[in-house]
User: Fold this.
Amino acid sequence: MTTKPESAGQPAASTQRLLRAIPKVDEFLGWLVPAPDAPASLVKNSVRQLLESLRQEILTGAPIKPADLTQGSLLPRLHKLLASRLRPNFRTVINATGVVVHTNLGRSLLPEAAMESLLAVGSRYSNLELDLTTGKRGSRYSLVEDILCELTGAEAGLVVNNNAAAVMLVLDTLAKGREVIVSRGQLVEIGGSFRIPEVMSRTGAKLVEVGATNRTHLRDYENAISGETALLLKVHTSNYRIIGFASEVPLADLVALAAKRNIPVMEDLGSGCLVDLSRFGLAKEPTVGEVVRAGVDVVTFSGDKLLGGPQAGLIVGKKEIIAQIKANPMNRALRIDKFTLAGLETVLRLYFDEEQALAAIPTLAMLAVPLADIDRRAKRLRRLIGKELGPVCRVELKDIASMVGGGSLPEQPLPSRGVVLAPLDRSVNELEKGLRELPLPVLGRIEDDRLLLDMRTVADKEIPLLANCLKEVFEAKNK
Ligand SMILES: *Cc1c(COP(=O)(O)O)cnc(C)c1O
Assistant:
């Protein structure tokens, strides 16, 4: 029997009968023998929440029958609710999207060695801000400054919370109340609310746009320089590309102009590679070292994009400029914590040996992995699920393309292999949602009405877990 919500006054008699049939909290708690393995207060709150949602369901005319209000029906609902409330909100997922630096899925994965450093400084005291040579107070970023300088050729450096913070801090230090010249083609939005023009106005720097969207010439910069100019800023257009009739001023020319007029040049590199990834089929991107060597005064980049470390904003450059940035009181509000520092130092040290970095840093390893290895993963997954899923889902292998992600290297698909699922017992959207809502969520991507699992971003040790997730989601429906 279905009851309709009443437009006014008393609920219908049938609705009232259903409402009276809802058990009382204490009665419900009496059913819970043995008590669930959860804190008593959480159990009680969950019972209340369940009973209240039943009331609402009845009042809004959901199709509830008296049988839905019995112990036999309600106990499983409570256990399901409890399980979901006991599950951490923030948990691991399987990234089968093929997007390596996936901002929504945690960007870069840390190497094992970095995890060990985190564990050590998390559970023991450390020299976070103590100079062990002098016994005096030290600064936390001095622990990585020498390493950063060695890897990039810069004179000095510091680290803040993320690259957005790095850009703000540099602008606030060097250009507050003065002018910053930027090419129109580089006024990018990175995502979220980080847009170069808005960041600029927040820091009190005045944006002076030069050139056109597709082309900017050296004379455009030259003509815009005035007594108010504090900085020439180049922004790496990491997440889009202008193709066709387009040109930017070569960095060397910009640096030469700035030197002639005695104005510093900043480059926001975004991703900031420390190694050249072009040998893995990606377009040549300038490394941080190359930009420093070109004479740029201050360079900012992310710790957790192509560098493959923890979230951080790295700032390297000329000594006098970095000294001014270090002295900015805003620095304190943007500082990194000890976990970041521990992870970052370990990851940076891996770069002393490039081959070691490529093998040990997951972000780099996933970009460099041979297609044959990805293919092996795809075949292994199909072997693990093929027979069981056969009656409910078509499982095929397909040549697909992965993306670098993180606003890095746009328009540069990497050849990959995927396991393609075409469910026979539900829509592909239902399958996608089912996998996303598992205790261990699985994220793939939908293409041509099928679910694609790109094996580039699935680690070998995750394959059996992924197979179990797939079996679980199909079992849940066909029980
Ligand atoms: C990603 C990016 C940023 C922001 O870096 P976060 O580390 O995400 O704060 C800034 N500028 C550019 C060019 C970027 O690509």
Notes: Residues 14-86 form one domain. The first strand starts at residue 94 and ends at 95. The chain has a mean pLDDT of 92.
